[in-house]
Amino acid sequence: MLYAFLKPIIIALMRLFLGLRSRGAENVPRRGAVLLVANHSSVLDPPLIGSMAPRPVAFLAKAELFAIPLFGGLLRRLNARPLRREGADPAALRTALRLLEEERALLVFPEGTRGEEGTLRPPKAGAGMLAVLSGAQVVPVYVEGSGRAWPRGARLPRPGRVTVTFGRPMRFPRKRDGERKDHYEAVSREMMTAIARLRDRESEPLALAQIH
After folding, report:
1. Which residues pair with 144 in a beta bridge?
2. Is the pLDDT of residue 211 over 50?
3. Owning domain of residue 56
4. How far apart are CA 134 and CA 101, in angstroms?
5. Which of the pair, 120 or 90, is modelled with greater confidence?
6. Alpha carbon 19 to its chain's center
7. Could you give the CA distance from residue 126 to residue 132 in angstroms, rounded to a whole number?
8. Dist. CA 71–CA 155, nearest whole Å
9. Are strands 80-83 and 57-62 parallel, antiparallel or unpaired?
10. Diameter of the chain by CA atoms?
11. pLDDT value at 153 more than 80
12. How far is CA 172 from CA 69, 72, 79, 152, 202, in A?
C-alpha cells in the first residue's frame, strides 16, 4: 500500500525540515470510526496529521486537485477523497459517512479552508453533522507552526518547528428535538472550543518561559 510505504519517509522529511513532533497520539482510538477535527492554516496539515496519527487517516481535498493528471490518482491512493468547496456537497458527505461506517479514521477541517497561523475561525456545520450522523468518536487536533512553515500564498515551504497535538475523544449524540442544523452548528462550535483549548495549552510553556 502506497500510504504505508510513504508514511515513514514523510515522517523523516518532516522531522528533518520542520522539527515535527506530536503529543497525545495515545488519545486516538486504534479501532473503530474516528473523526479527527483540526485547525487549518497550511497545505501541510493533512500530511502532518496523517504522519503523527497512529493509524491510517483518510481526508477530504478540494475537487480541483483530482483533475490534475497523475496527481489526482496519487491523492486517491493516499486516502484522499474530493470535496467541492462551493456550497453543499452531498456526494462528499456520503463518502465521508461511508468511510466512517467502514470504521476508518477521517480528517476534516471544521473551518472549511485555510486561515492565519494561530487564528481559529467560525466553523461550518458540516463537521458537526458528520459527528452526529456517524456517531463516531471525535478527536480534536491542533497543529502549531504549519502556518509559519508554509503560509497561504507562499510558493514554497520554509524550515520551521511544528507540533501536532491530539486531544481526548468526544462523542456527540443525536438530538431528538429542536432544529437539526442548530444542533450541528453547536457541535461544530464545541469542536472548535476543544481545538482552542489545545492551542492555549501549547502556548502555556512559552508564556511561562517569558515570565521567568
Report:
1. 163
2. no
3. 2-211
4. 7
5. 120
6. 19
7. 10
8. 18
9. parallel
10. 54
11. yes
12. 39, 33, 25, 32, 25
Cell numbers 500564498: residue: 153
- Residue identified by cell 497550511 is 42
| 10's grid cell | 514523510
Looking at residue 112, which CATH number applies to its domain? 3.40.1130.10
**Alpha-carbon gap, residue 41 to 106, rounded angstroms:** 18
Most confident listed range (4-13, 17-26, 169-178): 17-26
Which tens digit of pLDDT belongs to each residue from 116-129? Answer: 999 999 999 999 99
Q: Are 141 and 38 in contact (CB under 8 A)?
A: yes
What order of strands is seen across the sheet that includes strand 80-83?
21-23, 163-166, 137-144, 34-38, 105-108, 57-62, 80-83
Task: For 147, list phi and psi in degrees, rounded to 5.
Answer: -70, -25
- Report whether pLDDT(212) > 60: no
Alpha carbon distance 185, 129 (integer Å): 8
Give 73's pLDDT tier (boundaries 50, 70, 90). confident
Work out how many domains the chain is built from and give that number.
1
**C-alpha cell of residue 87:** 456550497
Is-above-0.90 flag for pTM? no
